[in-house]
Known about the structure:
Blueprint: E1 12-15, E2 21-24, E3 35-42, E4 52-55, E5 61-74, H1 85-93, E6 96-101, E7 104-108, E8 114-128, E9 134-137
Antiparallel strand pairs: 1-2, 1-3, 3-8, 4-9, 5-6, 5-7, 5-8
Amino acid sequence: MTVTPIDLFASFIHLDRSGRARAEQPAFDTERDGWQLMAFHVETGADLHADYWEVHPEADEVVACLTGAIRLYLRPEQPGGPAGKEEEEREQEREEEIKLVGGTAVIVPRGRWHRMELDAPGDILSLTLPRGSRLEKRTEA
Length: 141
């Protein structure tokens, strides 16, 4: 087997149950078993899909800010039922904010809705088991 460098910004690393790791074309497959390691260069909020909440029900997610700065927001653990605009505004006030700068990381617990916002362009790395992951469009208050 030939060992060659992998461009982390052009590939995802898939780690399967057998312990095998391989570089693949970026595709966030929510039906596949195995962990995915993903690196992203972020220059705008769109690069972080800042307009969406996401959740990974099968595993924790490691989010690392390698360079630059981001803010990660966690929804309250026990949000109420369907939210109207007023309830949604109150919920936003209860979001937990975590600031990450170059060289820092956070572990987002499995099943916890989260989103990110960009403070300074840079590079982020994430590791999670994407099976069952979902995105939900943010509503503007």
